[in-house]
Write a structure and sequence with these properties.
heterodimer; A: alpha+beta; Uridine Diphospho-n-acetylenolpyruvylglucosamine Reductase, domain 2; Uridine Diphospho-n-acetylenolpyruvylglucosamine Reductase, domain 3; Enolase-like, domain 1; 11 helices; 14 strands; 32% helix; B: 170 residues; alpha+beta; DNA polymerase, domain 1; 2 domains; five-stranded mixed beta sheet; 5 helices; globular
Chain lengths: 287, 170
């Protein structure tokens, strides 16, 4: 199908973009990479009166490492973040998650900040923002605010961004020293949305014992959920840690829903298997 | 767009100028014209095929400034000032691109509907990775669907294309 008619602007600067967004208010929709928005327009699941294409705005395509965090601009494509050596070195979880985002061709166009703004509960990058305790910088005419991950995702496909606001960048803080990470998921087909996905981070102390173990989940709840699983494994060396107990602890706190792709029971089963696998793998990388 | 009396209201047109297969084109199109439709209907370049129109099948893949992208997930106005390469721009019957030679040699197509998307995707891939493993080749075309399910020969074609390109360079 084809999109419904809409008014279109392609502002050339951030000031101009924020001015247009203020004018169009709730009738406006921001177009960045378009890999989620354009399918929705094509299928007429949404018919915004005004599309504001930010692809011509300068200064938004950066990927930089500073102040202990990776900063990603609104126009940085997933592929650009994935290929950025400094960003991957600072926060390996970025690359571990991005390789699971759709297919390479989609990542050439889709933006990391756009996938956060889209707030799809099965979007891998939502879990990365949540697990790292990151934030999104939202600009409107005359002001900018930082929205913490915990406050950013309100529900499925619903972020805290308000009419007139533009997500200009995302900040992914680096994790403590001796922290290993991974991202694992199970999807029906390679590149599809995961039925369950787990981002894990495990931190060891100087003696090699686990001091912290956390996991963030996608496709398990309306917004990404972060669980502290440290109590099940803290103080043990990774080889002696009871990852299955940590997985049980996680599954007890998750309440997945059924849909056409998987039953709630099957999602819980996946969460149990993937949590144990992810924590063990992350711990192996922390050593 | 319809008015209250049901008659069609004129949609605003936007000027686009973009280079397709080395040739600059100018046109005035509604903002909602997809790049895939612009190529097929406005420029009459029907080599780009449209399958699912929501980014899943990969048949409409073209190169935007050398990078494979879904043309059904881009607005034509969004391609303004950019360089687009369609399957027509890869090669000619007398001077085929290595991927086209390889797909012919290895029987990499059956009905041919998905082929333009595979060719553009593979052309960019072997440029980036001149000596891929079978797994890498499979991953590279994982976003393209072939409903004839001829994947074994398609993967063989991608590997053969990389080989031909390496021979050409040698």
């Amino acid at each position: 199908m084809k999109p419904s008619p809409f008014a279109y602007s392609a502002p050339a600067s951030l000031d101009e973009a924020l001015e247009v967004l203020e004018q169009v208010g709730a009738d406006g929709k921001v177009l960045a990479g378009g890999q989620s928005l354009v399918p929705i327009l094509n299928m007429r699941l949404a018919a915004p009166a005004h599309v504001v294409d930010i692809n011509r705005v300068g200064g938004l395509a950066h990927v930089t490492v500073e102040d202990g965090a990776v900063l990603v601009g609104a126009l940085a494509r997933h592929a650009e973040v994935e290929r950025d050596d400094a960003a991957r070195a600072a926060l390996p979880l970025l690359g571990q998650a991005l390789r699971l985002v759709a297919h390479p061709v989609i990542r050439n166009r889709g933006t990391t900040v756009g996938s956060l703004a889209h707030a799809d509960p099965s979007g891998e990058m939502t879990a990365v923002l949540a697990l790292t305790g990151g934030s999104v910088s939202a600009a409107r005419r005359g002001s900018t605010r930082d929205i913490a991950a915990a406050d950013f995702f309100l529900g499925p496909l619903e972020s805290a961004l308000e009419p007139g606001e533009l997500a200009v960048s995302a900040r992914f803080p680096r994790l403590p020293a001796r922290t290993g990470t991974t991202f694992v998921e199970v999807a029906r087909r390679h590149g599809d949305y995961a039925m369950c996905g787990v981002a894990a981070a495990v931190t060891l102390d100087d003696a090699g014992a686990v001091t912290a173990a956390r996991a963030a989940y996608i496709s398990m709840s309306p917004t990404p959920v972060v669980l502290d699983l440290g109590e099940a494994v803290a103080g043990r060396a990774p080889a002696d840690a009871d990852w299955a107990a940590a997985a049980d602890l996680a599954v007890g706190q998750l309440e997945p829903e059924a849909d056409i792709h998987a039953t709630a029971h099957y999602r819980s089963h996946l969460a149990r298997v993937l949590t144990a696998r992810a924590l063990a793998e992350a711990a192996g990388r922390a050593a | 767009m319809t008015t209250t009396d049901g008659s069609a209201a004129a949609e605003a047109l936007h000027a686009v100028r973009l280079r397709v297969n080395g040739v600059w084109h100018e046109a005035r199109v509604p903002a909602r014209r997809l790049l895939s439709d612009f190529l097929r209907h406005d420029l009459r370049l029907s080599g780009t095929h449209v399958g699912c129109e929501h980014g899943v099948c990969g048949a409409c893949t073209v190169l935007l400034d050398g990078q494979p992208v879904r043309s059904c997930l881009m607005l034509a106005v969004g391609a303004r000032d950019h360089e687009v390469t369609t399957v027509e721009g890869l090669g000619t019957p007398d001077d085929m691109h290595p991927v086209q030679q390889a797909f012919r040699e290895c029987h990499g197509l059956q009905c041919g509907f998905c082929t333009p998307g595979f060719l553009t995707t593979a052309a960019a891939f072997i440029e980036e990775n001149p000596d891929p493993s079978e797994d890498e080749a499979r991953e590279a075309v994982s976003g393209n669907l072939c409903r004839c399910t001829g994947y074994q020969n398609i993967v063989a074609s991608v590997l053969r294309a990389a080989e031909i390109a390496r021979e050409d360079r040698a």
